[in-house]
Amino acid sequence: MLTPWVIEEMKTAKLHDKRLNDRLRDILSQFSERPTASIPAASGGFNEMVAAYRFFDNERVTMEDILAPHIDATLLRIAAQKRVILPQDTTEVDLTRPEMEVLGAGPLDDESRRGAFLHLSHAFTPDGTPLGTVRADMWTRQDGARKKDRKKDYKTKPIEEKESMRWVEGLSEARRLALLVPETRIVSVADSEADIFELFDEAQASQPAIDWIVRACQDRALINEKGEKTGASLLFEHCAQQPVLYTHEIKVRGRKAKVSCETRGRRQPRQSRTARVEVRAACITLRPPHRSDRVLAEVQVNVVLVREIDPPPGDEPVEWLLLTNLPVDSAEAARDVIQCYCTRWMIEIFFRTLKSGCRIEERRFETLPRLTNCLAVYLIVAWRTLYVCRLGRACPDMSCEAIFDPAEWKAVYRIVRGEMPPDKPPSLQVMVRMVAQLGGYVNRRRDDEPGPQTVWLGLARAHDFALCWLTFGPDAEKHVDLM
After folding, report:
1. Are the C-beta atoms of residues 90 and 193 closer than 8 Å to each other?
2. pTM for this structure?
3. Minimum mean pLDDT range among 19-28, 166-175, 225-234, 470-479
4. In the beta sheet, which residues pair with residue 117?
5. Which stretch of DSSP H or E encloses residue 29?
6. Which of 148, 177, 378, 448 could form a disulfide with 358 if both were Cys (CB 3.0 to 4.6 A apart)?
7. Is residue 177 within 8 Å of residue 134, measured between CB atoms?
8. What are the distances in angstroms from CA 31 to CA 6, 71, 367, 379?
C-alpha cells in the first residue's frame, strides 16, 4: 500500500516507463516504512524483493532520475520560505567488504578502504527543518590518486581537473536554484574544505548574487587600506586585532582524535564544556594567489571571528573564522552569520541518518551503480525521517494528520497511551514524542526533543501497528470496503 506522502513526493517521476515509475513509488514506500531493515525484510515479499533488485540494476535507472521528482517537490518547499540555508558537504560511503569487492568502488583515505564519495547540497530552514536534497553527486578516486596529488605539478593543474571543483559547482547550483525561486533568499554554506579562492571569485563574478558563508582554514594575504599588496597583514592576525562586538557562551561537545598522529588543531581531542567566546568582525580584501592558467581578481569579503577566551589547559581553543558576503557591521548582523553557519551542522545529522538510520553502507550490492541507485532512494527516506523529527519542533501545535495517516496516529496512541484514541488528532509534537517512545525515547519532563535515531526506530514500529489497526482494529471493516 502506497503511503500518501510518497504519492505526492513522486508526482513528477519520469523514469522512461510507467512501470518503473510505479516500482519507484512502491520501493520508496516500503523502504520508508522500515528504514533500518534489510532490503529483503523491507520488501513486501519475495517478488517485491526481486523487483527492487532488478530496479536498481536497470540500466535505464539513474540517481538523477530517481531524485528528480524529490528535487521538484523540494523546490516547492523552498519557494514557500523567505530564507533557506543550503549547506554543501562531502561524506565517505565506506563499502569495504572483507568477503567481497564492490565493482567500481575506489580507495578512500588509503588503499585499504574502498568506497565512494557523496557530495550533497541539502536545503534547510533557518531553524534546521530539512526541505530536501537539491543536488547529489557520487564519485570515486582512482587507485594511486592521492600519491599523484602530492606531486608538485598538481598545484599547476586548473581547478576544473581537481576534486575541489565540486565546491565551485555547488555554489553554481545554488545560484541556479535562486533563479527558480526568486522570492526566497538562498544562503550557501560550506565548511573549511571549501576555502578555495576560485569559489570566492565565482561568488563575486556571477549573477544572480546569492548569500554565502565559508569557514576559513587558510591564512590568506590581504590587500591593505591603500590598495597595496605589500605591507598588509594576514587574515587571522588582522581579524584578531578588531574590536570585540560581543561575548557569548556556547556549549562545546567533546571529541576524540580519529587518528593518533593527527596534527590539525580543529581535529584535536577536547573535553565537553561551556566555552566563553569573543566575536569580532571586519571587511577585508583578499589578495589573489598566483595561478598558472588564469588571473584571479581581488575579492572583498566580510569576516566574523569567533574565538574562545581562556580554554582549559591542553585543549585547543574553539575558533571559527567565517568568510561571507552577508553584512557584519553590527553585533546582530554578526550573530546572524554565526547562526546561519550553525545550521550547516544539520547536514552532518542528515549523513548520520543516512548511514546509521538507513544503513546505506551495509547494503550488499556487487556493483557501485546498483548501490548508487539504492542510495538515491534512501536519500529521500533519510530526508523524510529527519523531516518528521524536526517538524515536530518547528510546528509543535500543528495537527499530526499533516504528517501521519489516521491509522498511524490512532494505532500509536492506543499502544503508547493504553487507551482508545480521541476524536481529535493530537498535535504533531505529541505524536512525534509518542513515535519516538516506540524507539526508546523516555518521554518525561525534559527540554530536549526526540532525536533522529529514536524517531526512525519508532516509525518502523508505527507502520506495523498501523497495519494491524487497519486489519484488526475498529476501522478494519472500512478498510476492507475500500480495498
Report:
1. yes
2. 0.89
3. 225-234
4. 92, 139
5. helix 18-33
6. 378
7. yes
8. 11, 19, 20, 11
